[in-house]
Amino acid sequence: MPITQSAKKALRGSKRKKIVNDRRTKAMKDAIKKIEKLAKAGKKDDAKKVLGEAYQAIDKAAKINVINKNNAARKKSRLAKLIK
């Protein structure tokens, strides 16, 4: 456990940031899984409609540095390739 006041404050901040990061990660993963599930089922038209939602979730995760920008580009590229 932190002893100094500044370490206690840093711990509180990191807990808040973890919650935000986990929320972004979950939104991103859920969107990706939804597209993969639709693509495997052969519903590529439906998957194309959901693609924008997934791109948005990935971009938001990259914007706040939950994932690296190159990782985001790779995920988006692979989703687009999966749907074609």
How would you characterize the overall build of this protein?
The mean pLDDT is 95. This protein has helices at 5-40, 44-63, 69-83. It is 85% helix and 0% strand. The chain is mainly α and 84 residues long. Helix 1 packs antiparallel against helix 2 and helix 2 runs antiparallel to helix 3 (69-83). The chain has a single domain, classed as Ribosomal protein S20 (Methane Monooxygenase Hydroxylase, Chain G, domain 1, Up-down Bundle). The longest helix has 36 residues, at 5-40.
Topology:
Elements: H1 5-40, H2 44-63, H3 69-83
Helix pairs in contact: 1-2, 2-3
Strand-residue proportion:
under 5%
Query: Structural class of the helix and strand makeup?
Result: mainly alpha
Give a short account of the largest sheet: none
Q: What is the straight-line distance between the termini?
A: 51 Å
Portion in helices: over 70%
Average pLDDT: 95
Instruction: Specify the CATH class.
Output: Mainly Alpha
CATH fold descriptor? Methane Monooxygenase Hydroxylase, Chain G, domain 1
- Pattern of helices and strands: HHH
Low-confidence segments, given as residue ranges, are none
Approximate shape: elongated
CATH homologous superfamily grouping: Ribosomal protein S20
Tell me the count of domains: 1
Please identify, by name, the CATH architecture.
Up-down Bundle
Keywords:
Methane Monooxygenase Hydroxylase, Chain G, domain 1, 3 helices, 84 residues, mainly alpha
How do you describe this structure in short?
The chain has three helices and no strands.
